[in-house]
Amino acid sequence: MANDKFVYVTYIRTTPEKLWEALLTPEFTKQYWFGVTLESDWKKGSAWKMVFPDGRVTDSGEVLEVEKPRRIVLKWLNEWMPELNAEGFSRCTMEIEPVEGATKLTVIHEIDKSKSKVIEAVGGGWPRILSNLKTLLETNEPLAMTKGGCKSAA
Length: 154
Prior knowledge:
By secondary structure, the chain is of the alpha+beta class. Helix content is 28%, strand content 40%. It has helices at 16-24, 26-32, 82-85, 117-139; strands spanning 4-12, 37-39, 47-51, 57-67, 71-78, 90-99, 102-111, 144-146, 149-151. It has a seven-stranded antiparallel β-sheet. Strand 3 (47-51) and strand 4 (57-67) form a beta hairpin. Helix 1 crosses helix 2. The chain is globular, with a radius of gyration of 15 Å. 27% of the residues are buried.
């Protein structure tokens, strides 16, 4: 089977430890992930889930690898869109690396399927989410999202 993949790299003016906390702590995720929180104990083999403010589960899976604060790999299943759920599990790798006064974040989201609807969806979602995360960590305020894009929250 062909492998479909989305890769996003950004540099954030923060420490690896602070980025790690922002990626995995519910208090942070709800600020830049449009109210969604991530829940898990973030140990290898543990379950994880993303939860909408109203309690519905948006995505879930299993923690495959953890190397705090450098790398986490998640088995990932979309729970709320039937056409994405039908494709089954994907894999998301987040790598964190300190670089000259900043931190490099690489997100690789992949699935063993060609022309994946999951990868098409995350290709639109990850840039918005990670831009919001970067802005939050660098300015202490997330972007305010509009239908057409982003505008400053201030």
